[in-house]
Fold this protein.
Amino acid sequence: MAKKKITVNTDNIDVNLEKDGTNIKLDIDSKNVDIHVLKDEVNKEFKLDSKNIDIDISKTAEGLEVKVESKGGIWKLIAKRVVKFILRRFKIGK
């Protein structure tokens, strides 16, 4: 399958998407939030960096690593929901 690359750059947000078969690399950069997603045959990675929440999820052949930092109670609840959703997408949790 052919390699596809999409780039969108505006004043407020930059989006870079590269897809090669089933391999996906997505980077979204904005003023307040940065998101990085990487998916290939073996590794899956998700990183979210914002003012109130930092989430780093990595799934490799060795195992799963989840790091979460958040400010305040409501942000912890939101971070927990985001992690649960991402783990479902990685086919790990129910």
In short: The mean pLDDT is 89. The longest strand covers residues 13-20.
